């Protein structure tokens, strides 16, 4: 446990957390909606610092990141907790328990330990992933700074609901991010994720156009929830117009989990329809994920049509890239 960062004092011993767009006002003895930040006598503390609950060496394609160090391995870790309450969460046993008051478990590891392990495993980067990295901000920031000193890149896999202050604080420390754009309606975000859409859209624009991090976007397509033609039309239009047609968009297949076991898995036809809509809007790199047998995972040059990266599952074979560009055109 350490004193948290990004908060301010309020009246009568209360504090306001400034880490994400909930901006929780927390009375003495209380915790924020994430369950991992607690007000102790007018001071906000981070309860999950150094409590690593998941770690692994992953292909960077698993994040998913397809255009950042393709074919490399990334050392991935997380603590327990999340600032959202998605009813379809596929890592709910890691992300949700602190929100209900359950113990915050994890193996004690310092930033030095984490960076040393990444180097021992010959990873090219460290990924802050699995749960929502915003809620272990202090551990992420300390680890990311040390990782840069040791020549490693830093990756976030995020729901994109962090505050602008959080993004600004992380600005020089993060190199790439994949953001879940869960849908394109406020109703869905509020009812199913316990959040709001507009802050995520604002953050996507800041990440792409101000911070300069490498950005890729993922949408989990849930039958009957966020896959209507009208919603997908608005979502792909936003990506093309506001974020940029060079931003990779990953369309991921849903499978029933957590509190949403009544919805069926996403059909191949639905995924293909979303793919075609994205391409029709001019998105140069659209990928279908979590769908075994899909042939929509390869990277093809939008200029000359050459296959640049061939993928099977999470393995990537780089074929036609030189200095980050197509070797033909």
Descriptive report:
- The protein has 329 residues and is α/β, with parallel strands linked by helices.
- Helix content is 26%, strand content 25%.
- The protein contains eight helices and 21 strands.
- The protein has helices at residues 92-95, 111-120, 137-149, 164-170, 186-193, 197-211, 229-243, 268-280, and strands at residues 2-3, 7-9, 15-17, 25-26, 37-40, 43-46, 51-52, 54-59, 73-78, 107-108, 125-128, 153-158, 176-180, 214-221, 249-253, 286-289, 299-300, 307-312, 315-318, 321-322, 325-326.
- An eight-stranded mixed sheet has the order 8-9-11-12-13-14-15-16.
- Strand 15, helix 8 (268-280) and strand 16 (286-289) form a beta-alpha-beta unit.
- Helix 2 (111-120) crosses helix 3 (137-149).
- The longest helix has 15 residues, at 197-211.
- The radius of gyration is 20 Å and the shape is globular.
- The termini are far apart.
- The mean pLDDT is 96.
What is the alpha-carbon Rg in Å?
A: 20 Å
Strand line-up across the major sheet: 8-9-11-12-13-14-15-16
Largest sheet: 8 strands, mixed
Give the beta-strand count: 21
* Approximate strand percentage: 15-25%
N-end to C-end Cα span: 53 Å
Spatial shape: globular
Order of helices and strands: EEEEEEEEEHEHEHEHEHHEHEHEEEEEE
The percentage helix is: 25-40%
- Strand-pairing-aware structural class: alpha/beta
| Count of helical regions | 8
Which ranges are low-confidence, i.e. pLDDT below 50, for 5 or more consecutive residues? none
Mean pLDDT: 96
């Amino acid at each position: 446990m350490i004193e948290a960062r990004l908060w301010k004092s309020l009246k009568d011993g209360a504090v306001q957390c400034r880490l994400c767009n909930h901006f929780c006002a927390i009375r003495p003895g209380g915790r924020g909606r994430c369950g991992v930040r607690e007000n102790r006598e007018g001071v906000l503390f981070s309860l999950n610092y150094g409590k690593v609950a998941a770690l692994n060496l992953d292909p960077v394609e698993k994040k998913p990141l397809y255009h950042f160090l393709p074919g490399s391995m990334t050392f991935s870790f997380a603590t327990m907790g999340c600032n959202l309450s998605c009813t379809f969460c596929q890592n709910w046993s890691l992300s949700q328990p602190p929100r209900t008051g359950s113990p915050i478990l994890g193996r004690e590891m310092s930033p030095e330990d984490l960076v040393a392990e990444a180097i021992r495993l010959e990873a090219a980067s460290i990924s802050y992933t699995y749960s929502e990295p915003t809620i272990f901000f202090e551990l992420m920031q300390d680890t990311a700074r040390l990782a840069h000193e040791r020549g490693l890149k830093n990756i976030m896999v995020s729901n994109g609901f962090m505050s602008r202050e959080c993004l600004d604080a992380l600005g020089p420390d993060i190199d790439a991010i994949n953001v879940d754009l869960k849908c394109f309606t406020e109703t869905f975000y509020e009812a199913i994720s316990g959040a709001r859409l507009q802050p995520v859209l604002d953050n996507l624009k800041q990440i792409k156009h101000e911070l300069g991090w490498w950005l890729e976007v993922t949408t989990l397509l849930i039958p009957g929830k966020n896959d209507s033609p009208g919603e997908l039309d608005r979502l792909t239009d936003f990506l093309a117009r506001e974020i940029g047609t060079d931003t990779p968009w990953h369309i991921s297949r849903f499978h029933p989990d957590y509190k949403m076991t009544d919805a069926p898995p996403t059909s191949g036809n639905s995924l293909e329809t979303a793919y075609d809509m994205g391409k029709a809007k001019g998105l140069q790199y659209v990928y279908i994920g979590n769908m075994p047998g899909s042939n929509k995972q390869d990277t093809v040059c939008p200029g000359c049509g050459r296959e640049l990266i061939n993928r099977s599952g999470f393995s990537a074979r780089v074929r036609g890239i030189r200095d980050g560009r197509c070797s033909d055109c």
